Amino acid sequence: MPKMTASDVKQTMQRAEATAARVGADIPLDSVLTAQEWEQLHRDVFDGSDTLEHLRDYARAHYVPPVAFLLVTLTRIAAASYPTTVNAGLGPTPLNAYLVLVGDSGMGKDSVISRSTKAYSLIRTSFPEVLEERPLGSGESLVSAFMPPAPDKDDPAPKPNPRVLFTETEISNAETLMKRDGATLRQNLLKLYSGSTVGNATKNSVDTVAGGTYSTGLIIGAQRGRVGALLDNPDDGLPHRFMWTELLDPNVPSQLPKVGPELDAVQLPKAGTVIQACDKASRQVKQRSRLRLTKGYTGGLDSHLLLTRVRVAALLAVFRGHAEEHGFTDDDWRRAGALVAYSKKVRESCNERLQASAVVKQMTREEAEYAARRKRIHQLVYKALKDSEQVRVSEITNPQRRWRNDAGDMIAELVHAKAIRYVDKQCWIICKGEAWQDFVASLSTRPK
User: Fold this and answer.
1) Contact 317/326 with Cβ under 8 angstroms?
2) HSE-CB for 214 with a 13 A CA cutoff
3) CA–CA separation, 214 vs 195, rounded Å?
4) Which of 8, 269, 338, 403 shows its CA 20 to 30 Å from the CA of 385?
5) Which of 223, 324, 350, 227 is closest to 271 using CA atoms?
6) Residue range 308-346, pLDDT digits in tens
């Protein structure tokens, strides 16, 4: 084989890139946004902020989607934030945040989480405790994650863990945990998001984590059609306590940014900081509260979206380094609004996929049930006429009480197929038809 020159190698690589580009052009974008809308979202979220633009370029240089990478990072900051809170005019509330990474298997959920962990493993803080990271478990294990470990000779009086990040990249595990008899996972997730008191009680002990003494975050990976565990029972508000994002970057440039300097560690505000909301956000929160008091209006199934936006804006302010001095600004509020609006679209697309899947399952189940009933009628017809010259249709259909009409239709199908015929239609008496043997043969070849 002749040795390839540098020119040959370059041409081969160019041909491979051209082929990949043609193949990519033929694949439709599977997203709630068009490519143009993705470009606008990136402008709304990243442009005009050196810190956010640096994160976007860093994500692209490491082949992870910037929006998902940003939201994972903000969730990590939320979990590490205690005792920082945010006040949008109704008193301090924790920054606790939940996130769903939506994508099929192989879309890189673990890569996004891993890259954020590496980039922000050191979150600068004046707090003595560090962020503890755990897999998602039962409702009881959520509570125990904040409890102090068992004492030992080295630490006879261990302290509780006030900051815990939960991660579960397979939604099937969360689904199993939520559907167990007596499961408390969903209820405890609702309480943890609000920063309320949570606890476990047994005959021997009562474990309690007081409200306002912890911070937490939750990251779940899920396929679009497998989020029933989160979207079931939407009236409790759990679905819109989550931010939702796809794992996409449709407009990634052909020339990726150079990795450049690593991302700076996030400096959390000093202990006890209450991040003040901008005036625009405070007005909207107070208007919603007034509607709740005067009209009973909570925002319906989106009742917690406004609070979620407040927290995202506060987390953006922490990430950008001005939360302690300036609170979150109109600019943070605008960027958070773009993220929440996109998140809502992703959530709604998941719900639509789930509902479509439920319809297909129902239709499949009904078709299977009809096929089973049809098979039974065919067997009853064969049994009735196998050793008889004729039989009344009622002897076959009447015992099938709940689906007698279906049974009559199935008899009519056999008449039409000439497997049977009417001896006396007025009295509904049937006998074997000219295609009887074909009918019998079809019975013997059907799967049992």
Assistant:
1) yes
2) 31
3) 7
4) 403
5) 324
6) 999 999 999 999 999 999 999 999 999 999 999 999 999
Average pLDDT of the residues in 405-424: 91
Strands 390-392 vs 429-432: parallel, antiparallel or unpaired: antiparallel
Q: Is the peptide bond before 135 cis (omega within 30 degrees of 0)?
A: no
Band of residue 127 on the pLDDT scale cut at 50, 70, 90: low
Task: Express as a percent the part of the chain with pLDDT over 90.
Answer: 46
Contact (CB, 8 A) for 249 and 66: yes
pTM of the model: 0.79
CA distance 237 to 239: 6
List, in order, residues 6 or more apart from 108 with CB less than 8 Å away. 64, 65, 247
Backbone angles phi and psi of 356, in degrees to 5: -65, -40
List pLDDT tens digits, range 143-198: 888 988 777 767 767 788 899 999 998 888 877 777 775 678 888 999 999 999 99
Q: Is-contact 372 365, C-beta < 8 A?
A: no
Residue that is written with structure tokens 């049977």 in the block:
420
Q: Which residue has the tokens 């000093």?
A: 270
From 73-82, 117-126, 253-262, 413-422, the region with the lowest mean pLDDT = 117-126
Q: What is the distance between the alpha carbons of residues 418 and 437, in angstroms, rounded to a whole number?
A: 10
Amino acid letter at 226?
Answer: R
- Report the alpha-carbon distance of residue 98 to residue 96 in Å, rounded: 7
**In sequence order, which residues have a C-beta less than 8 Å from that of residue 186 and are 6 or more positions away?**
139, 178, 233, 236, 238
CA dihedral 375, 378, 384, 390 (to 10 degrees): 160
Q: Which residues contact 296 (CB under 8 A, 6 or more apart)?
A: none
Interatomic CA distance for residues 162 and 147, integer angstroms: 8
